[in-house]
Design a protein that fits this description.
Helix content is about 20%, strand content about 30%. It is of the alpha+beta class and about 475 residues long. The protein has 2 domains: about 120 residues, Immunoglobulin-like; about 290 residues, Purple Acid Phosphatase, chain A, domain 2. Helix 3 runs parallel beside helix 4.
């Protein structure tokens, strides 16, 4: 009897696989998996797409008061993508009103990481425009078929304020990179739980460890889940988004970032954004490291952007630190190239990753650690949000230092001040400061908590 049941099961399985592999004669998505041969692959649901949208993410645009960008992924049986958007309402009555439809740009992509199976997907991207500032909208993504179940849920998203004097907040993350699903997820989720009203999230590179690993990207999107779809993100690539000088082929299909950089090769990796009264600038430091042409293009472009800048506040974010936290990791070429421009044009913040430790300070500190610093220049921060941990070296530019600690930073920009707090996943405040800028003068107030300085040697003994 057991043998007969086993034979019957094998016949049914073979029949199902043959049906799944048949050639489709129409454009309608079918209701079965096209990756049955990978059902035994660990985390196959994170790696392989289906006809239902996944990896949905909203990205920051250069006019976030009137637009937002959204990207998602499906299998290749879905050839078209559509965004439906409406004003959010108290109940479901938005379904009875005007729902606008925006056709996405859709492209079929095949990629295979060196350690994974071939993945065939369609990536969809759309820019939703003609929106009102400081307004909550609902949107969903799908294939556009009204009679089809292959839609996402309805997400809520709020546009930016137009008034420059209104405060806004964002979360800054250093490298996620490793053990993303298991250990980075709590960091992004804790940040959202503690600060649910943030306006956007900023990632300083090395979102994943292996640039085109669909497993790792699947974990990154899984960790952020609905947060990615409801809070716009902006990111700069790190060295792990590159391999042999080549950017991951998944970067541009799965994100929609400004294309106002210096060259075509640097589109969506080097760019600037005006967000209320702040100029936000991404420098692609890995491309900077790889090519003299990229160095010259980014330096020339950066000066032109800073020279024309009319915003009160300026923040640069890049992966490699201008001031590193450890010996043997000094990025002197980057520092010599961009620090003169940072000083000349009075950049307020430089947010970085890469060193897998925490440090915050400024070059003029000279180990003094004063509570109030008048005529402050630029504040530099290096942080890590993932679990990969290095050691650092105490240096004079550092006001606060830390090792073996996962952090996220909340930054609030107001008319005359920037407030900064670095938090652990359990909500402990590890570092804090405030910059006040009035009448062309700028001062720093250090507000470090009593939290002890963490060093890796206190937790991991050297062998």
């Amino acid at each position: 009897m057991k043998r007969s049941l086993k034979v019957l099961f094998i016949i049914l399985l073979v029949s199902y696989r043959l049906q799944a592999q048949h050639e489709h004669t129409d454009s309608s998505p079918h209701h079965h998996s096209h990756y049955l041969e990978h059902l035994e692959t660990p985390a196959h649901k994170l790696i392989f797409p289906s006809s239902t949208p996944d990896r949905i993410i909203s990205n920051l645009t250069d006019d976030q008061a009137h637009t937002f960008a959204v990207n998602w992924r499906t299998d290749q049986y879905v050839s078209n993508g559509v965004v439906e958007v409406a004003l959010a309402t108290e109940g479901p009555e938005f379904l009875l009103g005007d729902i606008r439809r925006i056709k996405a740009n859709s492209q079929k992509i095949e990629n295979q990481n060196r350690n994974e199976a071939l993945v065939k997907a369609t990536y969809h991207s759309a820019l939703v425009n003609n929106l009102q500032p400081n307004t909550t909208y609902v949107y969903r993504v799908g294939n556009g078929d009204k009679n089809d179940d292959y839609w996402s849920e309805w997400f809520q998203i709020k546009t930016a304020k137009k008034d420059k004097s209104e405060p806004f907040s964002f979360i800054y993350f250093g490298d996620a990179q490793n053990h993303i699903k298991s250990l980075w997820s709590r960091v992004i989720r804790s940040s959202y739980r503690k600060f649910p009203e943030i306006d956007f999230m900023l990632h300083a590179g090395d979102l994943v460890n292996d640039r085109d690993s669909n497993l790792e990207w699947g974990e990154w999107f899984y960790a952020g889940s609905f947060i990615h779809a409801t809070v716009p993100s902006v990111m700069t690539p790190g060295n792990h988004e590159y391999r042999d000088g080549v950017l991951t082929p998944l970067w541009r299909p799965q994100f929609t970032l400004p294309e106002n950089g210096p060259t075509e090769d640097l589109q969506e990796t080097c760019f600037s954004i005006d967000y209320q009264d702040m100029k936000l600038i991404s420098i692609d430091s890995e491309a900077f490291d790889e090519s003299l042409e990229s160095i010259n293009a980014q330096i020339e472009w950066l000066e032109s952007v800073l020279k024309a800048n009319t915003k009160k506040w300026t923040t640069i974010f890049t992966h490699y630190p201008v001031y590193s936290t450890a010996e043997g990791r000094d990025n002197w070429e980057l520092r010599e190239a961009i620090k003169p421009l940072i000083d000349k044009y009075g950049v307020d913040l430089v947010l970085q990753g890469h060193d897998h430790t925490y440090a915050r300070g400024f070059p003029e500190n000279k180990g003094q650690g004063l509570t109030v610093v008048k005529d402050i220049g630029t504040v530099y921060a290096v942080s890590v949000s993932g679990p990969k941990m290095y050691e650092s070296k105490d240096q004079e530019w550092m006001v606060r230092r830390g090792e073996y600690i996962q952090l996220f930073q909340i930054i609030t920009v107001s008319e005359n001040s920037i407030s900064y707090g670095a938090y652990t996943p359990i909500g402990t405040l590890y570092d804090s400061f405030k910059i006040i800028k009035k009448n062309g003068k700028k001062k720093l107030i250090n507000m470090m908590p009593d939290t002890p300085t963490r060093l890796k040697e206190d937790f991991v003994k050297h062998e």
